[in-house]
Write a structure and sequence with these properties.
- By secondary structure, the protein is of the alpha/beta class.
- The chain has one domain: TIM Barrel (Alpha-Beta Barrel), CATH 3.20.20.70.
- 22% of the residues lie in helices and 25% in strands.
- It is built from 4 helices and 7 strands; from the N terminus they run E-E-E-H-E-H-E-H-H-E-E.
- Strands 3-1-2-4-5-6-7 form a 7-stranded mixed β-sheet.
- Helix 2 packs parallel to helix 4.
- It binds iron/sulfur cluster.
- Iron/sulfur cluster binds next to loops.
């Protein structure tokens, strides 16, 4: 059953206005092997760290806040858990909530793997994709929702 699917997370922000448009619930997924220098979320790197929670438990938190405009998947690297997150994203869309996904991959890399059905399923459920690793030399606070100027925002829906 979809509610019982487990996702390894580092934590949540119940309300954010800096991780995509509007008021958003943020899921910080656990696990990233990219190790960008000065990553803001180093606690998310360990693939075995964090805790496992079910989609049902995450939805209970989301459903408790009627002010939300959407849900954001950040990390960590969400595409390491693409299948489970695609299921969660589908549940968010059923609630009329938009889905923003951050990734250290570039969009072209994700598209270059059409046989990776999990990646394609998550892309299919993504309204806004913010791509690319954090690059210390390109750090900026002037571009909305991004930490470095190499990162791009794609509206996919
Ligand atoms: S991809 Fe994101 S989470 Fe992973 S090391 Fe880079 S900035 Fe940190």
């Amino acid at each position: 059953m979809k509610d019982q699917i487990r996702i390894r997370v580092s934590g949540f922000i119940e309300e954010s206005v800096v991780d995509g448009p509007g008021i958003r619930f943020v899921v910080f997924t656990q696990g990233c092997q990219r190790f960008c220098p000065d990553c803001h979320n180093p606690q998310t790197h360990d693939l075995q760290g964090g805790t496992e929670v079910t989609i049902g438990e995450i939805l209970a938190k989301i459903d408790s806040n009627p002010l939300l405009d959407g849900v954001t998947f950040s990390g960590g690297e969400p595409f390491l858990q693409a299948k489970a997150l695609a299921e969660l994203a589908e549940c968010c869309h059923a609630r009329k909530l938009s889905v923003v996904v951050y990734t250290g991959f570039y969009y072209e890399e994700l598209l270059a793997n059409p046989d990776n059905r999990d990646w394609q399923e998550l892309l299919n459920q993504t309204d806004i994709l913010i791509d690319g690793p954090f690059e210390r030399d390109k750090k900026t606070i002037e571009i909305a929702f991004r930490g470095s100027s190499n990162q791009r925002l794609f509206c996919l829906s």
